[in-house]
DNA sequence: AGTAATAGTTGCTCTATATCAACGTTTTGA
DNA sequence: TCAAAACGTTGATATAGAGCAACTATTACT
């Protein structure tokens, strides 16, 4: 099993090397180019991706053709459209590599089979969902209660990596503001 | 076991009556008055609540003293500050009954013991987290990409109950707008 | 390496929503 | 049951951020 995924497991659950190796065949490797899409709006999501290197972005396009970024998965994180994966409905969001990336992917069927039958994977899925819960709770309060400058500060505090790696256009779409406004806010930091 | 909780289990997982009855002692009943608090900011959350009748609201107060409502749990739903429950950190949010309510509550320790050791409770927790994921994904896209009127329409579409039961002040705090604006938007519906 | 495309900046103007004030309506609790 | 408090409405005004245009800087493609 790939080292990055191995240490992900070890950080979250007690698991023996043998067991880990038995899970390995479920994950296949895929290399993608910068800007390549892994899922488009309207398609049903069939895979869960784990980022070995590079990063994935989850975003949707609203009625006015405006992109909204919901989540960015850096190396060592799972990233997929869980809403489509869980419900089996067509996705309202896109998955796109923002950099040349190396990924592992596991099919939806295999993943949920392991969630049901492998305590370690159950634990990991639980952790993914719990982490998402905590992050999005803060994100909702940020949208409700604070202005753009505070949201930008909060982003820099919680994910310092984002600003240096991701284009301002995409950061703006994550914060829910235009890139014009982001450009002006940076001057006030 | 209380009928409302029983049917909650039956809807989400296969479970025998005997097993259900063995889980029953973990849940205790509590009656609360309208506006009563079950958790305040700064306290560590120690219980998971299930609403038999009435409803609970989860909200926080920002720097300017403004209330922001994140979630409202009606009858037949679990509601608690999972962020505090999971992390063990003091809560940034309050839990308050919006109506005279009857609740079941289970301690954090018992709940996570059952999550680990009772497949049916594991399944239920997974469903709670997955549902929260799906709801908050939509909520984030709503905040990023759509104006207040559309957010109000989206709320009415997805939770028609809310408008008739909950004060406009609180609905405004859920939508991230002032009650003045909500009052004006209603005229445009 | 050189040119086209994309990303970022900044001034000007516009708009949605906040804020404040004043007032009518409903709810609540002694 | 009735007064006080909380809730809801509406006009006038203020403001954060959007939208547009024109420009510069950076990136990427053959």
TrEMBL record, chains A, B:
UniProt domain Cyclic nucleotide-binding: residue ranges: 11-115
InterPro entries listed in its UniProt record: cNMP-bd_dom (IPR000595), cNMP-bd_dom_sf (IPR018490), RmlC-like_jellyroll (IPR014710)
Pfam families, per database record: cNMP_binding
Protein name: Crp/Fnr family transcriptional regulator
Organism per entry: Aquiflexum gelatinilyticum
């Amino acid at each position: 099993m790939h080292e990055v995924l191995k240490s992900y497991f070890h950080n979250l659950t007690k698991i023996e090397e043998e067991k880990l190796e038995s899970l390995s065949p479920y994950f296949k490797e895929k290399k993608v180019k910068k800007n390549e899409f892994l899922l488009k709006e309207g398609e049903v999501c069939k895979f869960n991706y784990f980022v070995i290197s590079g990063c994935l972005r989850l975003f949707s396009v609203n009625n006015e053709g405006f992109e909204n970024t919901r989540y960015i998965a850096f190396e060592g994180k799972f990233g997929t459209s869980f809403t489509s994966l869980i419900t089996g409905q067509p996705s309202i969001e896109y998955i796109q590599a923002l950099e040349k990336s190396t990924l592992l992917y596991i099919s939806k069927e295999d993943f949920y089979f392991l969630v049901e039958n492998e305590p370690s994977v159950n634990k990991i899925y639980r952790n993914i969902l719990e982490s998402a819960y905590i992050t999005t709770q803060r994100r909702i309060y940020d949208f409700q209660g604070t202005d753009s400058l505070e949201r930008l500060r909060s982003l820099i505090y919680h994910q310092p990596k984002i600003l240096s790696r991701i284009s301002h256009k995409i950061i703006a779409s994550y914060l829910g503001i235009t890139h014009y406004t982001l450009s002006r806010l940076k001057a006030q930091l």
